Amino acid sequence: MKMRLLYAIPVLFVLLFSCTTEPLQNETIIMEAQNNIILEQEVLNVVNDYRVSLGLNKLEFSEIAYKYANKHTDYMIAKGGLSHDNFSARASSINSEISVKMVAENVAKEYDTAMEAFEGWYKSTNHKKTMEGEFTHTAVSVKKNAQGDFYYTQLFYQE
């Protein structure tokens, strides 16, 4: 009887003090990451739909571009604003992993939907030109800062 009681007390302690009705922080982080991935795919789809409507090729997703887009999105969030800082280094890094003819990028922030981000780029001559460029591959990184604002980086390249 004493053995059962000695075993039951720690089990009961763990059960009583480990249960919570609030979502775990890890679950919240996972859900946010999943939402960002969905938004990234939506941006890619909107840009590709636009390109196809113009008779241009669909852009293929690139893991390499995604890696550098993510790093730049993190950089902009840490800096607290939009930038194309270190673009030449990103382009060179992509070129060192896969031989490319040209690289370009679009950045944005504070758009809540893929369509809003696309429309912001569409209304900008330079961003629109990039979306319509002779590229073959792309990747989009979307993340939120601590205030809940979305930051976007889309990298394009031509093999």
Automatic annotation (TrEMBL):
Signal peptide range: 1-23
Q: Which domain of life is it from?
A: Bacteria
Q: State one Pfam family annotation.
A: CAP
Q: Which GO terms describe its biological process?
A: proteolysis
GO MF: peptidase activity
Keyword annotations from UniProtKB, A to Z: Hydrolase, Protease, Signal
Q: What are the residue boundaries of the SCP domain, all occurrences included?
A: 44-156
Could you tell me what this protein is called?
Serine protease
Q: Native species of this protein?
A: Maribacter cobaltidurans
